[in-house]
Amino acid sequence: MFVLVTYDVPADRTRIYRKLLRRHLEHIQYSVFYGNITEGQLVTIQNEIEDTLEPRDSVYIFESELEAAVECTVLGAADEPGSRFT
Fold first, then answer.
1. Average pLDDT of span 35-58
2. pLDDT at residue number 55
3. Cβ distance 26 to 33 under 8 Å?
4. Is 28 exposed, middle or buried (0-12, 13-18, 19+ CB in 10 A)?
5. Which region among 4-8, 42-46, 67-71, 74-78 has the lowest average model confidence (pLDDT)?
6. CA Rg, the chain, in Å?
7. What is the CATH number of domain 2-85?
8. What is the C-alpha to C-alpha distance for residues 8 and 28, in angstroms, rounded to an integer?
9. Residues 6+ apart with CB under 8 A from 29
10. In the chain, what's the furthest Cα-to-Cα distance?
């Protein structure tokens, strides 16, 4: 399954989420991560996030069964997703 994860947390907590999500997903931009993972990996990520959450933290997880069902348009100076690995 394809997931896109974003977070909005106080600045002093960003490294916690960045470290957690980099173990499972590609870091595409500041607080945005994505990748193809199994349902079990998604449950693991969700559990780790729930264990880390504090009242002012917000985390969004978008899921799709197929990466091909998600269209990505990049505007500006950003690299295309996945281009770091080609």
1. 96
2. 95
3. yes
4. buried
5. 74-78
6. 13
7. 3.30.70.240
8. 15
9. 78
10. 39
| Cα–Cα nearest to 14, from 63, 62, 52 | 52
CB 46 within 8 A of CB 17: no
Instruction: State residue 67's pLDDT score.
Output: 81
Contact 4, 27 (CB under 8 A): no
The encoded tokens of residue 10 equal 């106080």
Can you give the length of the chain in residues?
Answer: 86
> What are the residues whose beta carbons fall under 8 Å from the beta carbon of 33, sequence distance 6 or more?
4, 5, 6, 21, 22, 24, 25, 26, 27
